[in-house]
Every structure is written in C-alpha cells, then in structure tokens.
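## tool: complex_structure
## caller: assistant
## args:
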Amino acid sequence: MNDITITNGLEVVYKRPKTLTDTPFHYCPGCGHSVVHRVLMEVVEELGIQEKTIGVAPVGCSVFAYNYMNIDMQEAAHGRASAAATGIKRVLPDRFVFSYQGDGDLAAIGTAETIHTVNRGENILMVFINNAIYGMTGGQMAPTSLSGQITSTSPYGRDTQKTGYPIKITELIAQLPGAFYVTRQSVHTAGAVRKLKKAFTAAFEYQKLNKGTSFVEVVSNCPAGWKMTPKESITWMEENMFPFYPLGDIKLPPKESPSKN
Amino acid sequence: MESKAIEKEARLMKGNEALAEAAIRAKIDAYFGYPITPQSEILEYFSREMPNRGGIVLQAESEVASINMIYGAAGAGARVMTSSSGPGISLMQEGLSYIASAQLPCLVVNVSRGGPGLGTIQPSQGDYLQATKGGGHGDYHVIVLAPASVQEMADFVFDAFRLAEKYRNPAMILTDGALGQMMEKVILPEEGSLPKKTPEWATTGKPKWRERNIITSLFIQPEEMEKINLALQKKYELLKQEVRYEEFQTSDAEVVLVAFGLSARICQKVVELGREKGIRIGLTRPITLYPFPEKIINRLAKKIDFFLVVEMNAGQMLEDVKLSVNGICPVHFKGRMGGMIPSPEEVLEEVEMLLEKHSISHDMEVK
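## result:
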C-alpha cells in the first residue's frame, strides 16, 4: 500500500526489499534507524539468508524492529539482546543471528552481557546504534553522551566529573579475543550507507566462519532528542560525534581467514 | 532386556545430581546457569556430562544473562532449563516475567536457601511467595512443583517440562538445599520418554511458506495487552486441572498438617509419632504449589478440628491455606526461618499444645 517503487523509465532503481514488511517506519523524520533497518535487510535479501536469519530487538526506539524486518525475530529485555541472541545461536548454530541495540541498551544496562557475549566469541552480529542519547524515553543522558552535551538529565551539559565520561564501548570490546570484526560506520551520506552495507555483508559472511563476534557500530543522529532539525543534527554529528567516535574499521579479521572459505 | 533391567536399577544420588541426570534423560537441548550454593552441583554435573552425551551447557556471566539466554533459546523452540538459589532467582524475576508474557516453556530450578539478602546457604522455604505469586512484575504465574525426595527431584523434571510445554508457560521446581544436597535411593526416569518437537511458533528462521514468527512481551495498545492478560488468566484457570497433592492418614484425622517439600518429609514423621500417641493426625502435602490444591484443603476443613501449617519460613503457604479454608476451621502455623529445620518432636509438641487449647475452648463452648 505504502510501497514505493522508483524507476528511471527503463528499469526499477529502488524498491522495498522482500525482507522489509510493508509497514511505515515509526521513527522520527531524519532518524538513522530506518536507514540502518533497510540496509541490514537489503543485505539479508541479497545474501539469500532470509530463511536462516533470526534477529533480536532491544528496548529503546528500535523495540519495534520486528514490525519492519520480515524475518523471525525476538524482542529482548532491556540490555539483554546479546544474551537472548546467545541462547538462539547456541541451539541453532547454523542460523544467522544478530542483535540490534542502542547505546543505553548495549553500553549501560547491558554492559555485562555485551562484554561477555563478545568475550565468548559468540558467532553473531551485534549491531550497535550510537546516538549518544536515550531517544525513546525522551532524550536523557546516555553512557555515550558527549562531554558537555545537553540532555534532559544533563540540562547544564554533561559534567564528566560528576557523571563519568562517554564510553567507547566499541574500542573496549575490540580488545577482546572473541571479537572477530569490529567497525564503526554511519548513515549520514550515500557513501556512508554504501560502506555500512559492505560492513553488514562482511559480518554475515564472517558468521559462517564460526570465528567470533562481528560488531558494527553505527554513529547516528537523534533530531528529536537532540532538539534539532534533521539537517542540524547531521552537522552536529559531523562536528561533535565523529571527532570522538571516529568512523572506520577498529579490528579486522586476520587476512587469511575470510577468503579461504 | 537385561540392559533395561540395569537401567531401572536404583542408584544412590544427591538430589541436585539426580535432577541434572533426569534433565539429560529428558533430552534438554541446553542449560544456562551460574554458580551459587547450594545448587552448583547441577551446573557441574551438566559441565561434566553434556559434552559426552549431547546438549549445550553454558556458564553465563550472571543469572540475569542465564535467564535471558533461556528466553532466546526457548523462543527458538529448544527444551531449556536453568537453576539457581534465592539471590540468583531474584535476579531472574524480570526475565521470568518476559518469558511468562511471551508464553515460552522452560524449567527454572530453585534450590532455595535462607534469606532475605545474602542470608545463609542452609535450606529454607522462604521463596514460596516469590515462586507462586509470579515473582516479577505484572499478572502472571509460574507452574511450581515441590519435590520432597531425591526421587521426586528426578521425576519432577519430566513433569515440569510436560506441563511447561503443554501450557507454553515457565515451570519451576521449588526445592531446597537439604533435598539438593542429601543422598537417597533413586530410580531414574527412562531416557527419551518425553516426546519433543519444534513448536510452530518458534523463531527458527522464516521459510517462504509461513509468516514471520515473533517472540515478544510488548503489546503497547492497552486493548491488546488486556487481551493477552485475559488469555493468560484463562490458561491459569485451565491449569487447575493439573493440581497434585498427597494425603497421608487424613481419612479419620482431627488435626491435619499442611506442608510441602522438606517440611512434608518432617511432618510425615510427626504423623507417625502422633499416631503412636493416639492422636488422630494426618498430613496434606501440596505437590503443585501453583496451581494450589485449594479444593482438597477446603473439603478437609469441613471435617477436621484444625489445620497446622508447617513451613521453613515465616508463614507463606499459610496464606494460601487460609484462603482455601476461608474461615471454616482454625488454621495454625509452626515455622522455622533462616535455614533452621524444625524437628518432628517440636512440631508434635506444637500439635499437642494446640490440641489442649482446642479441647479447653471446646469444653467452654459446650458449657
């Protein structure tokens, strides 16, 4: 019904992948979640693994991810998506399993699960959306909120002396031997989206190798939580988020492993 | 034939190990757990046996992680269990609420110890209310079975999975440190006697021929959430047909003890000692704590002088007994707390004291 197919008059250049349901996203205008959902599902479709993929949604803005992703999914308790994903992957080792979490979910309440899931080298993909704020509950300070960042619970700006420092959880887990592939991407430009797609594709391919956890952070924006227009939020992200959370690969698999299989 | 006879042979086992062995024979797909006294033998037994006999055992980073691994694996259609004791079971309550709401079958074993807080590692029945009234947030119940012997520690694993899978509901075996640690004769259930098939609602990967399966406890529209609640309540009503209890010398009894688990073992001795003294005493032992055998207690209330509820807590099942009796006859309570186990003699003393009091008040009524 709401399906949009774009053609250039000769061929279809853009349409909804079969791995996305025909449901309009509930996300705020300009939010990165819907783009990440789409890219993730494009990869599942292109790899032809819809029948073998199981996702785990978090608590947070993407709690309803299962409304959009046309695959079998579970909705986990706050912070526990990677534990639930562990449970699924352990009993169904030949399936592709991913968790999808925000910064509050993955890097605050779920820190123990995050670290230990990666430390066990669970053969799953962990998708981490970092927008430095609790979006769903109305824009409170997150573990990843920047120093001086104004949120509803740091109205005078985040005071690191009193509230601690923004946590670079991705760098933290990259230290663990169980981490196989760790990268930080974004979706703020067409080029960035293409890079994220490559990262997701690699992560699913790596899952076949059984060599450890793939962890893909997406630095994203939250126009509503940041109290900005989508355009302003992109600029703010570029000027403030990227210097602290630099984009790029953080840990790459040893050269020989992927190509030989 | 011969091997089957050997299979049926009685073995001397610890309660915790008999339970774990039964779970392997019930063909569980996975166990997720975390060490805590007095149940660590369960995790140890699986760690030793599973690598050779199939099935997954994973020592999680916490009980919080364990129960959420259970959620994931049960949602993926696997037969799974975890075990812990009081403090760990408290940590699992959020996860249990999600599991109950998402209607996933699984087994949680509570080898309970004295609380509150870190408490003691000695046996207790102080988790009765937590186990039978839901324990976490929201209107839900867990099926609760209370073994009173090492034999039942093993048998109830099969019963728990049978009920959990039939009703798509988490089941709990509520036992205690004494039953977990003590050794007794046990005849183990036969391997594979519990049929297993992947449920159609499980998230196993969406084939083209069906819609996607979703495991969730999120129903944001209140109308929808109420519907889910009504369905749960209907299920709990249906569960009443699964009530189990045991009666011991109640047919002519004037005094009936009500006790579960280890307390019931002690009370059996109290009945024997009481009968030797000519006291017409009996025992009712609820086996399913949820659903609670309210009908039998209500029926007995009309025939006897009084009940004495005996528990290793401050009087938790007492509330359910009182609700079942509904004022028909007096309900008294004898309890020990904090890991103390009542002796048969001190319970019998309580019975005799109450009998005396009742005969005095009875005489006064006659006058």
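## assistant note: The longest strand of chain B covers residues 106-112. The domain at 2-198+215-241 of chain B is CATH 3.40.50.970 (Rossmann fold). Handing back to user.
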